[in-house]
Amino acid sequence: MNPGLIYDIEWQGYVDFIYNLGYNVTEMRAILRKSQWNCSQEGTDLNYPSFVAIFSKNASHPRVKNFTKVVTNVGDDQSTYQAFLKTTHGMSVNVEPATLTFTSKYQKQSFVVSVHMDGKAPLVAYSYLN
């Protein structure tokens, strides 16, 4: 099996992400199975293949959320990956850059996924990136 690209995640990224979802101290202890931890930054942008953009009902339009992702090439030395998107009505998703070209195995590159929701978007909308 050759996944091509992998998303590296550190322990701290999980801690920041869970904390910024609004869990209280008791819940954090249960989830992390530790009594002490440190939250170092806003962690709503977990370096993971999936992402969730949560907007307040009262947010002004258009609503935008950016996700920065870092991937490592574990495929062939000379590899190119192109973003393919599927979105629903009222939502647009942009990927920059839309193409990642690697020249070596284990090379890292980043890209930004921008989710834009307009006033016509349903309360729950789905999209995916291949």
Offer a concise description of the structure:
With 130 residues, the protein is α+β, with helices and mostly antiparallel strands.
Which runs of at least 5 residues are low in confidence (pLDDT < 50)?
Answer: none
Mean pLDDT: 83
CA-based gyration radius: 17 Å
- The total beta strand count reads 8
Strand fraction: 25-35%
Structural class: alpha+beta
- Physical arrangement of strands within the biggest beta sheet: 1-2-7-5
Count of DSSP-assigned helices? 2
Along the chain, the helix and strand elements come as EHHEEEEEEE
The backbone outline, from C-alpha atoms, is flat
Query: Which percent bin holds the helix content?
Result: 10-25%
The first-to-last residue Cα distance is 17 Å
Please, could you describe this protein's structure?
The protein is an alpha+beta fold and 130 residues long. The protein has 2 helices and 8 strands. The chain has a 4-stranded antiparallel beta sheet with strand order 1-2-7-5, with no helix packed on it. It has a two-stranded antiparallel ribbon with strand order 3-6. Strands 4-8 form a two-stranded antiparallel sheet. The model has no long low-confidence stretch (mean pLDDT 83).
